[in-house]
Amino acid sequence: MGKRYHCDYCDRSFKDNSEIRKKHLSSLQHAKNYAEHYRQFKDPEEILREESTKIPCKKTTSENGCPFGNSCRFSHYTAPMMWELERIVWLKQRKESKKFSADIPNPLEIITEFFQNPLSSTIEETTDRPIWNIPPHLKTYSNLPPSLWPITPASVTDSNFTKWG
């Protein structure tokens, strides 16, 4: 059995012959499948530019829809879809117009700032306060197990875990 050629766009395979392959590649069905495949990778700006020049298709409102599908020469985008597409294009252009370095802080500056004084006063202030509050009804129990006691610097340094039970 000879070699076979498989077209990924058309999901067909046939005998690998240069004449047959040229005939398939120049066929209308292959051109449609090729265009449909790469249509999903188009930029929003290009889609907006193409669709804004087209007249809305009148057959999309019918029950059966447009028989031409994506090969229709009229636009199948509704007004809300066009607004959303315009919004996407606007956000993309706005994002590209901002400078990349202004949005994101320099990681080296963050690291050096942290390691210059790792025990800054702001960290010490936060450790003095309790991390969580004890519910008021637990304070009334006299025999509260140590695992439920609030964490304090003294309780962390005490390593006598035998009383925990």
Write the topology of this structure.
Blueprint: E1 4-7, E2 12-15, H1 18-25, H2 28-39, H3 44-52, H4 79-97, H5 100-103, H6 107-116, H7 121-128, H8 136-139, H9 153-157
Antiparallel strand pairs: 1-2
Subcellular location: Nucleus
Protein name: ZMAT5 protein
Keywords: Metal-binding, Nucleus, Zinc, Zinc-finger
Would you give an account of this structure?
The chain has 165 residues and is mainly alpha-helical. 48% of the residues lie in helices and 5% in strands. Among the domains are: 1-41; 42-114, no CATH class. Helix 3 packs across helix 4 (79-97). The model has no long low-confidence stretch (mean pLDDT 78).
Overview in brief:
By secondary structure, the protein is mostly helical. 48% of the residues lie in helices and 5% in strands. The protein has helices at 18-25, 28-39, 44-52, 79-97, 100-103, 107-116, 121-128, 136-139, 153-157, and strands at residues 4-7, 12-15.
Largest sheet: 2 strands, antiparallel
Number of distinct helices: 9
What structural class results from the helix and strand content?
mainly alpha
Portion in strands: under 5%
Let me know the number of strands: 2
Q: What would you report as the Rg, rounded to the nearest angstrom?
A: 34 Å
The helix/strand series, from N terminus to C terminus, equals EEHHHHHHHHH
Indicate the percent of residues in helices.
40-55%
**What form results from the Cα inertia axes?**
elongated
Mean pLDDT score, rounded?
78
Low-pLDDT parts are none
Distance between the termini: 78 Å
Strand arrangement within the widest β-sheet reads: 1-2
